[in-house]
Amino acid sequence: MTKGKQAYHHGDLRTALLDAVGEIIRDSGVGAVSLREAARRAGVSHSAPAHHFGDKNGLLTAYATRGFEIFREQMQTALDSAPDPRAAFQAIGRAYVSFALERNEYFEIMFREELHHSEDPELDDAGRRAFAVLLEAVRQVAEAGLVGDKNPMHVAMSAWATVHGMATLWLTGAPSKFTDEDLGTLLEGVFEVSQTELVEAEGGAA
Amino acid sequence: MTKGKQAYHHGDLRTALLDAVGEIIRDSGVGAVSLREAARRAGVSHSAPAHHFGDKNGLLTAYATRGFEIFREQMQTALDSAPDPRAAFQAIGRAYVSFALERNEYFEIMFREELHHSEDPELDDAGRRAFAVLLEAVRQVAEAGLVGDKNPMHVAMSAWATVHGMATLWLTGAPSKFTDEDLGTLLEGVFEVSQTELVEAEGGAA
DNA sequence: ACTATATCTTGACATCGTCAACATCATGTG
DNA sequence: CACATGATGTTGACGATGTCAAGATATAGT
Q1: How many Å lie between the alpha carbon of B118 and the closest alpha carbon of chain A?
Q2: Which of A124-128, A195-199, B60-64, B181-185 has the lowest mean pLDDT?
Q3: pTM of the model
Q4: In terms of C-beta density within 10 A (0-12 exposed, 13-18 middle, 19 or more buried), how is residue A113 classed?
Q5: What is the DSSP letter of A196?
Q6: Distance (Å, rounded) from C-alpha A162 to C-alpha A100?
Q7: How close B154 comes to chain A (CA, Å)?
Q8: Cβ-Cβ contacts under 8 Å for B158 (sequence gap 6 or more)
Q9: Do B196 and A196 touch (CB under 8 A)?
């Protein structure tokens, strides 16, 4: 591995293959993902990927894991840079949907169970770490007395469902069949409505 | 076609193939769906399906269309049997999630764009007819003054996103990683929270 | 220097989607 | 009734894919 490109060993084939998956999805959609095409793009033989990932689901499991890590980073940044719990709650929601729309080459794989190895510990951990950020945001609004007498876990799940639903629906393009409104504007409108879940008062009686 | 089973012509192969798709998904998941397996289950040759559906996406497009029709029926029933707009709104939400969970052999195909023929008029119509029921429910709660000063279309999209998100998240089993609560109970809790979007007053000033 | 191991290649196999050519049935028209 | 036409289904083939076994090559530890 002095530096040559035609070395027998690739150097970091694992990373190259994961990158290739993203490329393929952006170029031709999830349906076009194949071990052989990823191998082709990485410049290796057709069955090299199996040595790193076992099988196709192994590759996609690793890819989804990487997606959840990026996902977590973006939500964490949103949480950290918000001035108060209410703003953080909203920022996380926007980060969730933004990630889904802008990095859908990850998002589309992350929530497709049949493409993953079942009970993969790394994937599960990455997923849990990502949603821990969302749960932390809900914990903070609850502590600030902004959820009234609602069950915080229920608030968290409701918020999660709403942003997840927005993400998946927007990705399919379905909403555009029912309104001429710009999808970005529509998104903001839906955010406003869905935040009715938060109590208006500030010095709330927890 | 006197009655024989070994007749050269099947009789209703189209329906048999659509049924077969559902069987395959229930038995082995969406990944196991193939034209050849559907043909096998219908007892015809491997390329018979192409004459009815053109290609694999054609079969799945027809299958998704049938799914949206059943979906619409169930939401319409929920809407019709509710005593008032608020109850109708809630009933539709429950019907949406129930359909996704109980008939997920349809749901998983219906919202997977890459499996459909693009801009298929029958599929689009079936989808629009289904969501028209949800929109009608929102129209009724708006007319009853239950949405405050919110934009009814935004309320509709928010409700849609929430139930759609619940459906897809519950199907992945993700929520069970964050709570021990029974998923049915959790579902009801989330419904309660998300219905905060509706105004409490009854003789609302529309 | 030597060996064990990780990494990658080669070749093969069954399955899949798709296509072209052909076979069989149904229908209606003279 | 004869028969032509179109719909329906079959057969055989092709390239692409996921997976596996066997072999080749590089790396690392001793």
Answers
A1: 11
A2: A195-199
A3: 0.93
A4: middle
A5: G
A6: 13
A7: 5
A8: A162, A190, A193, A194, B197
A9: yes
Q: What is the DSSP letter of B148?
A: T
**Interface probe, candidates A196, A197, A198, A199, chain B, greatest B C-beta count within 10 A:** A196
Q: Is the dihedral of CA B51, B54, B58, B62 positive or negative?
A: negative
Residues of B in contact with A181 (CB under 8 A): 153
Give the containing element (helix H, strand E) for A106.
helix A104-110
Three-class secondary structure of residue B127 per DSSP? helix
φ, ψ at A30 (rounded to 5°): -60, -30
Task: For residue B173, give every residue at least 6 positions away whose Cβ sits within 8 Å of its Cβ, in sequence order, or none.
Answer: A113
Q: Which two tokens stand for residue B105?
A: 């052999």
Give B45 CA → D10 C1' in Å: 6
Of chain A residues 41-100, which have a beta carbon within 7 Å of strand C?
A: 44-48, 51-52
The candidate with the shortest Cα–Cα distance to A161, out of B107, B158, B109, B180, is: B158
* Mean of pLDDT values over A141-161: 95
Locate the chain A residue with the closest alpha carbon to B196: A197
